[in-house]
Every structure is written in structure tokens, then in C-alpha cells.
């Protein structure tokens, strides 16, 4: 029996980290949003394991970084180790740069944590509507919005929700993407894998050499929580329904292992690699794995989805609140799709590099004799950490006003710059305050000469003007009266190297970035 129709500004479909992040960001903007998740609760499986430094910057902006860090592993777990079996010594190891120790390029540090530890923190971050056990089964785009048909499996009821915009964060097998007929490019399904969650006392082999990931010839071992618990990840066997999971895990631990293994959960899943050909269909926007699914090596997938939400939500807020035109949403795909392609390319490269390490070890063992204590890694720590991809993303769209400077080439190294389109560099304003702390639900103008710029009208756009210490002007490419206009997602939208060319320079830039040919008052439609 249908329930009464409802309305919301934004309907979010999918209650994973991406949907939950979008819910929290939109709530901070004061945008009405309803999140629906077809499962009856948050996932009990660990799934994604790494919150990288850029995601932690976003969570710091939401006031969540300290809580996430408190529930996560200590920094020394920010390392990968390679072993023949878990009980053997390391034959190779590498640090997760930006996780194992602070980096000077950010005020925060990434963490190793399990997705089932992260999601409750995101859920509790804001008091905004969320409905579990509710599945989207149909949607129709109309002139003024989208009408979604929802089924509440707990109550056996249907409801129609009218939303101005829809965010599809419903995973790699996205129902919405398939309904819209949006194709994908890339290798597609790479293989079937199984995650076995288990309890066992493995301290004798791991406590003195902690890591977030132990790669072995018999599967991957992952410590789940600081207080205990493990997961084992391996290709799904042919007769998975009859598999002896405790026995398989015990054999993977090493020959003659006498450690009792208590299997708690088993999950079969498919590793995918693709990018959607479109991220937008009218008022419907794809985010996270619905838009791009990448192999897990390097921990890039979930973090790319969090960055999707960060890029998208300020634009949705502008459209809903009236200080941006709907055409601003066109820049979401223009900015995030190239990043998704780079991310997929890097994840595939990471997977190949990992296989090179394991193949070298197998070659050594086949050759006989005493194998060397260490295998030389086929990458530098900077390469495998991909800080250039994490912190050095460059956006090119109509929401970025270039100033003639040449865009940097994408790469794995990160060099802080203040070129338009780049993330604002982390620079200290005071001992405890970063330039990144000036960002929020507004545009930020950073300038060594605030008085000159305060004379320029910025209504109706939300804008804060902040003083930039003169010692940072050279790195930012500014002279004494210049300024950076930073978008709410922390990317530089415009730069004036010196004094503004006119008294209307700021207003013209905000008009161009938000596509507002005739700005309306906030709240109007």
C-alpha cells in the first residue's frame, strides 16, 4: 500500500561511505537530503581499509578527523609487508606515505581503518534523514525534478519521493546507472574474490612487525581493528559453497600452523575496473563506485568516491540555494571523470607492481639455494603512495578560470602550487591553523591585502576573506595586492597575481564559476 508522497531537495541512493559523506556535506550546507539504503543496516564487512590524507582533510572539515583517528590503527600500521606465508619473515616492505607518518604537504595524516568502523562515524555525523531497508525500484525525470519509487522492505510499503536532484551512490552494480543505460569503459570484472573475517591470535608473527596489509603467496591478511580481528582475502575457489574456510585460512597461515581459526563471516565479491561513460543524466549524478570502480591495490577507490562527493555537494547546494545555475553541475563530470580514469590507470599499475614483487620471489625460490632476505621493490615509495594523484589533482572546467599558467603534468609526485584548478596548498597561518582551515560552506578569498578586496561586493555568494601572510605569497604566485579565490571544495577557482583589474573582478569571477548570468537571491528557485 503506497504511503504519502514526500519531497526533498536531494535524494541520495546508497548508504556506503560516499553516500554518507554526501549526506553530511549537504547537511552542513543546509540542504534537505534523504538517503535510502536497500540493506537493513550498515555493512558488517571491513571492505575498504585506507582513508588517505585527502579524505582525512575532507573529514577534518566535517569535524570528524579526530574521531576517525581515535578508532583507527596507530601510524606504524601504515605499511605493507610481503611474506611467503604469514608466519615467515618479510621479503619486502614499503610504507604508505601520508599514513605511516605525517607529510609536510598536509595538516592531517591518513589512517588504516576498516569501512565498518568508518561508516558509523559518518552516519552519526549529522542529524539528517536516512532510511534503511528502502530500495529504489524506479525513477522518472520530469521538468522540475525526479520522481523515485521506493519500496520499504521492512513495512512492505511503497512511497514516491520527488527530488530536485538525485545522487546515485549505489555501488559498482548500480541499479540507477543500469536503468539510465549508461555504459562503462575499462577491463570490467577482473575476478571473483572472497573475504573471510576471522578471529585468531597472530601476535607471535605480527605484533613486532605491524602492517595494514600482509601480502602472501596464499592470500592477503588484514588486521581489522586495534583491539583484534582479522580478514583473509583470496580468489574465490570453484566450489565455494563447500569450502572449508577455517582449513583454508590455517593453510594460508603456514604449514603446521597450530593457531585456532574462528571464522565469523564470509563474503564473496567481484573486483571491478571501469569508468562510466557519463557521470550525469539530467538531474541524476553518479558518484563513487557507481561512476568508477577500481582494483583495491593502493586503496584508491573509496577515497576517490569521497572526493566525488566533495566536488559535487557544493555545486548541488549552489543550485538548490539559488546562487548557482543548474548548468554548474555539468562541471562535475568534466572534473571528476578524468580523475577517475587516472585512478583506474594507477590502480591497475599498482596491481601489476604487486604481482612483480611476488613473481620475483617465486623465481628466487625456483632457483633453489638460499633466497635473499629482501626482494628489491619495482617502485619508489613516492610512486606507490601516489601523493600526486591524492593531493595533486588538477581540475579543468568552466568552474575554473585559468590565468595563462601551464597546468602541471599529472604524476605520482606531488609539488604544491596555487595554479587555478589545483587543491589549495597547505600553508601555516598560525601554529595551529592551516590555509585549509579557512575553507567551509563558502568561497574563500586569500589575499595579503584584505582591505582592497573587501570593497568588492560578493552577494549573493557565500564568501569569506582571509589574510594571507606575506611569506606565502611567492609559493602562491601572488604579489602584494593579489588574491586566490578558492572554491568550497578547496580547489582554486581563480587567481589574480596582483591588484584586481576592476572593482567588479571578484563578482565577475564568481558569476563565471557558478554560471550565474543573473544571480538570484539565496533560497529562490
Q: Can you walk through the features of this model?
A:
With 525 residues, this protein is an alpha+beta fold. The chain is built from 14 helices and 24 strands. Helix 1 runs parallel beside helix 4. The protein is globular, with a radius of gyration of 24 Å.
Q: Summary?
A:
This protein has helices at 17-29, 53-61, 65-70, 115-123, 175-180, 203-206, 245-253, 301-321, 330-367, 381-385, 387-391, 450-454, 473-476, 505-514, and strands spanning 6-13, 33-37, 50-51, 79-83, 92-95, 111-112, 130-132, 134-142, 145-152, 157-168, 184-199, 213-216, 219-223, 230-235, 262-276, 280-281, 284-286, 292-293, 428-430, 433-434, 443-447, 463-467, 483-486, 492-496. It is α+β, with helices and mostly antiparallel strands and 525 residues long. The model is unreliable at 518-525 (pLDDT under 50).
The secondary structure category is alpha+beta
Strand content: 25-35%
Q: Tally the helices.
A: 14
Specify the overall morphology. globular
Mean pLDDT figure? 91
Total number of strands: 24
Termini gap: 33 Å
Question: How much is the radius of gyration in Å?
Answer: 24 Å
Query: Which spans of ≥5 residues are poorly predicted at pLDDT below 50?
Result: 518-525
Largest sheet: 8 strands, mixed
The residue fraction in helices comes out at 25-40%
List the helices and strands and how they pair.
Layout: E1 6-13, H1 17-29, E2 33-37, E3 50-51, H2 53-61, H3 65-70, E4 79-83, E5 92-95, E6 111-112, H4 115-123, E7 130-132, E8 134-142, E9 145-152, E10 157-168, H5 175-180, E11 184-199, H6 203-206, E12 213-216, E13 219-223, E14 230-235, H7 245-253, E15 262-276, E16 280-281, E17 284-286, E18 292-293, H8 301-321, H9 330-367, H10 381-385, H11 387-391, E19 428-430, E20 433-434, E21 443-447, H12 450-454, E22 463-467, H13 473-476, E23 483-486, E24 492-496, H14 505-514
Parallel strand pairs: 1-2, 1-10, 2-7, 4-12, 10-17, 21-22
Antiparallel strand pairs: 3-6, 4-5, 8-9, 9-10, 11-14, 11-15, 12-13, 13-14, 15-18, 16-17, 19-20, 21-23, 23-24
